[in-house]
Amino acid sequence: MTPIIKVKGLGKQYRVGARRQQFPTLRDSLARVVRKPLDILRANGHSEMFWALRDVEFEVAPGEVIGVIGRNGAGKSTLLKILSRITEPTTGRAELYGRVASLLEVGTGFHPELTGRENVFLNGAILGMRNAEINRKFDEIVSFAEIERFIDTPVKRYSSGMYVRLAFAVAAHLEPEILIVDEVLAVGDGQFQKKCLGKMNEVAKGGRTVLFVSHNMRAVVQLCSKCIWINEGQVKSRGPANEVVVDYLSSVQPQKMDGLITREMHYHDKLEELSFARIELLDEDSNPTVVNYFGDPLRFRVEFEVLRPLEQVRLGLVINKFDETVVCAVQHTDAALDLLDLQPGSYVAQIQVDVPLIPGPYYITLFAKPDGGYWTSGERSLDYIAHALAFNIEEVSAEGGAVLPTNALIHPVSRWTVEGKSNS
Amino acid sequence: MTISNNAGALTSDSEPSIKIAPAGTSLPDKPVVVIEPRAWLALDLQELWAYRELLYFLMWRDVKVRYKQTALGVVWVVLQPLLMMLVFTFLFGRVAGIKSDGLPYSLFAYTGLLMWTFFSSAVNAAGNSLVNSAALITKVYFPRMLVPAAAVGATLVDFAVAFIPLAIMMVFWKVRFTSNLLLLPIFIIIVVVLALGVGMWMAALNVKYRDIRLALPFLLQLWFFASPIIYPLSLFEGKVRWLLGLNPMAGIIEGFRVSLYGHKPFDWSTIAFAGVVAIIFLVYATYNFRRAERRFADLV
C-alpha cells in the first residue's frame, strides 16, 4: 500500500548556544558580527551545533498506528514538531498525504479567564476544527469530559482534573487523516486515563493514521501495531511494537539482565542493615537464565548480606510486567515460614513462584522489610531494588491449541467440564 | 478450549463511536503537506483563508480576555484618549495656545488621539503578540501571521468603541458632515495596513530580539510627537513641514480630520505618500515575516 507518511533523511540541527541562551539580544548579534571574522578563522562552527534529529527515514501506511519511543531528549518531540510543521527541518523531506492534526500538549491555547464553553471553541479552532464541526460535537465533547455543570465557569476555577478532561475531550474529537499525539496520556487520574486510552484505541481502530509518542509502554503496545525507537536523534530500530518495546526496555536498564545488584540500584544511599547482592532466574537445571518458558515455574535465587543483627525481617519480591503493572507480590511468609531473625553474614534465598505469566518481558522488584512490615515500597525498607532483574517469558509451541491473550497478565491452568444432552 | 485473542480489548464506556471515512480508500496523488527546509515561504493566501475562523477566534479571545476582571471594562478604551485630550487641551490648547486649524482644540486633539491610540495600541499589541503566544506557537501549527493580525483586529474593536465619545463631541460642537466623510474608510484602511505592516515587522523582530519589547513603547512615544496629533501640520512651513510629511501617520491623521470636519482641503500628496508607505511596509513585513516564521518555534 502506498504510504501516507514518507520521511526521508530528516534532520534538525540546533545551535547549542541558541538553545541555552533564551533571548538573543541585538547587542549579542552586533557582538557576533564583530566576532565573526574570528569565527571564520576558527575553522568551523561544528562544535556549537547539535543534531537533535539526523537522517530519519520511515514510511507509514494509511491506518497504521505507530508508536514513537525513546529516552527523554532522544529527538521524539523534535520529530513530531517537524511533522506537525511547528518547526522546520534542517535537512530532508517529509510528505504527508492527508490532513494533519497534532496534539503535542493537552489544552493548547486554553485561556484561564474564558469559560469551558468558550475554551472548547477556541481550542477547537486552534486544533484546526471548523466552527460548524465544533458546534456539532459540542455536546459530545462536554459529556465526554463530564463537566456539564461547569461548562460556563471560567476554567481557572476548574480542578486540574476537570481542566485536563475538557482539554482532552476537545482533542479526542478531532477528525484528521493523520493524528500526531505526544504524551497526552501522562495526565489526568487513572480512570480518565483509561477512558482516554479507550478513545485513542477507537481512533486507531477507526482507520486513522496515528503517530503516538508515549513513555507508557503498555499504552504503546496496546495501541500501536508498529513502533519506531529513536535514540540520539536517529532511528535505532523499528518493527512490530512488541519487539521494539522489549528491545528498548532492555536497553534502558541493561544492568537488570544480569541480576547483579550495583550500588546505584539500591533505594537507600546507605545500607547498614541488609543489602541485596544478586538475583538470578534459574532454568530447570538451576543455571542462571533471562528467559523462561510459558508455564514453567519461576525459580529465583537471591543473595543478600546482613550487616547487623536483625529481627522480624520479611523478604519479598514483586513481579512487574515491563510497563510497571504489578502482576503479583510474594513474601517468604507465604510459605508458612516465620519472620526471620538474622545475624550478620551472607545468605541465599531460593524462591519458586508458580505463576503462568503470559509471554513477554517482566522484571522483578526485591524488598526486605523490618519489623514484619509488608509494604512493597522503598520507604521503611531495609533494602529495596526497583528493577532488580529483567527477564522474558517465551511462548512455547502451543500444545493443546491454547491461544494466549496478549493483553492479559497470566494464563492460569483451568479445568473445565462441559455437559449436556443431544436432542437428536 | 480456546480463548479468543481480543487484543486491545479496551473500550470506552459506551461512547458514541467516531464516524470517519474508511481508511486508505484513496490517497491523494500529491502530498497534502510537504515538509522540507526552505529559504523563505511564499505567501499562502489560500491557507490564510482556510484559517479565517481561527483569526476570528483569536480576535474574539483578545477582546474578551482584555476586559475580564476589570471594573471599568470597555470604558478604559475611551478613558485613555479622553484623559489625554483633557491634559493636552489644557497644556497646548489653553496654556501654549497652539492653533488647531480652526477646530475646537479638544475636538481636534481627540480626533488625532483616536487615530493614534488605535495605531500605537495595534503596533504594540501586534509587536508583542508572537512572544505572548509562545505556548501556542511551540505546540500547534497554524499560519503564524494570524497572531499579529488578530492583535490588530482586536484593537480595531477598541477603535470602534472609541468613536462613541467622538460622536458625542461632534454633536456638542455641532459639526456638520460634508461629502468628505465618504473618504473616511480610506484613512482607516491605510492606518490598518500600516499598523499591520509595522506590527508584523516588530513581532518577527521581537521573537529574535527581545529588545523590541523594551524599545517599542519608547519609539511609539517619539512617533507620537512626530505626528500631527496635538498640533496641526500647518503649524510648520518649509523643510520642517516637508520632513513631518514623511511620516505616514501625518497624512493619515490630517486626512482623517479633514474627512470628518471638512475644515480644509485634503492634502493629497501626503495622503498618497502615506498610502504608498503603508503598502510598502506591509509587503516588506510580510516577506520578512515569512522568512523569519520558519524559526519562530525554535527561538520564541
Question: Secondary-structure blueprint of this entry?
Answer:
The complex is a heterodimer of chains A (424) and B (300).
Chain A: E1 5-15, H1 16-20, H2 26-41, E2 49-60, E3 65-69, H3 76-83, E4 91-96, E5 100-103, H4 116-126, H5 131-145, H6 160-172, E6 178-182, H7 190-205, E7 209-213, H8 217-223, E8 226-231, E9 234-240, H9 241-252, E10 274-282, E11 288-289, E12 291-293, E13 298-306, E14 310-321, E15 326-331, E16 340-342, E17 345-353, E18 360-369, E19 383-394
Parallel strand pairs in A: 3-7, 3-8, 5-6, 6-7, 12-19
Antiparallel strand pairs in A: 1-2, 1-4, 8-9, 10-11, 10-13, 13-17, 14-15, 14-16, 14-18, 18-19
Helix pairs in contact in A: 4-5, 4-6, 5-6, 6-7
Chain B: E1 33-35, H1 45-50, H2 52-66, H3 75-95, H4 105-132, H5 134-137, H6 146-161, H7 163-172, H8 184-208, H9 211-226, H10 238-245, H11 248-261, H12 268-293, H13 296-299
Helix pairs in contact in B: 2-6, 3-4, 4-6, 4-7, 4-8, 4-9, 4-11, 6-8, 8-9, 8-11, 8-12, 11-12
Report what the structure shows.
The complex is a heterodimer of chains A (about 425) and B (about 300). Chain A has about 425 residues and is an alpha/beta fold. Chain A has two domains: about 55-250, Rossmann fold, CATH 3.40.50.300; about 255-400, Coagulation Factor XIII, Chain A, domain 1. In chain A, about 25% of the residues lie in helices and about 30% in strands. Chain A has nine helices and 19 strands. Chain A has helices at about 15-20, 25-40, 75-85, 115-125, 130-145, 160-170, 190-205, 215-225, 240-250, and strands at about 5-15, 50-60, 65-70, 90-95, 100-105, 180, 210-215, 225-230, 235-240, 275-280, 290, 290-295, 300-305, 310-320, 325-330, 340, 345-355, 360-370, 385-395. A six-stranded mixed beta sheet of chain A has the order 5-6-7-3-8-9, sandwiched between helices. In chain A, strands 12, 14, 15, 16, 18 and 19 form a six-stranded mixed beta sheet that branches. A four-stranded antiparallel beta sheet of chain A has the order 11-10-13-17, with no helix packed on it. In chain A, β8 and β9 form a beta hairpin. The two termini of chain A are about 50 Å apart. Residues about 20, about 40-45 and about 395-400 of chain A have low confidence and may be disordered. Chain B has helices at about 45-50, 50-65, 75-95, 105-130, 135, 145-160, 165-170, 185-210, 210-225, 240-245, 250-260, 270-295, 295-300; one strand at about 35. With about 300 residues, chain B is mainly alpha-helical. Chain B has one domain (about 55-60, about 70-300). At the A-B interface, α2, α3, β4, α4 and α5 of A face β1, α2, α5 and α13 of B. β4 (about 90-95) of chain A pairs antiparallel with β1 (about 35) of chain B.
